[in-house]
Specification:
1 helix, alpha+beta, about 35% strand, about 80 residues, single chain, five-stranded mixed sheet
């Protein structure tokens, strides 16, 4: 899993698919990610809807991965 981003979103690359999650980077540093923005994969997989079960699994994996380097904490709202 690879996590990159900007002040207003993070991009998750996992299992050959890409996911964009909207949110806000604060000065703490922490990124407050909007769970509601997790709906579909990015192109070319935009027709694949993300189920609630998949969403929860992705969030768990993202939290584990983001805690490895400790640079920016990701918090889901």
């Amino acid at each position: 899993m690879k996590i990159t981003g900007t002040k207003s979103y993070i991009v998750i690359e996992t299992e050959g698919k890409t996911l964009k999650i909207e949110g806000e980077l604060t000065t703490t540093p922490a990124f407050y990610a909007d769970k509601k923005s997790i709906q579909n994969w990015e192109k070319p997989n935009e027709s694949i809807k993300i189920t609630e079960e998949e969403k929860e699994t992705l969030i768990e994996k993202i939290l584990i991965e983001s805690n490895k380097d400790g640079n920016v904490k990701i918090i889901f709202e």
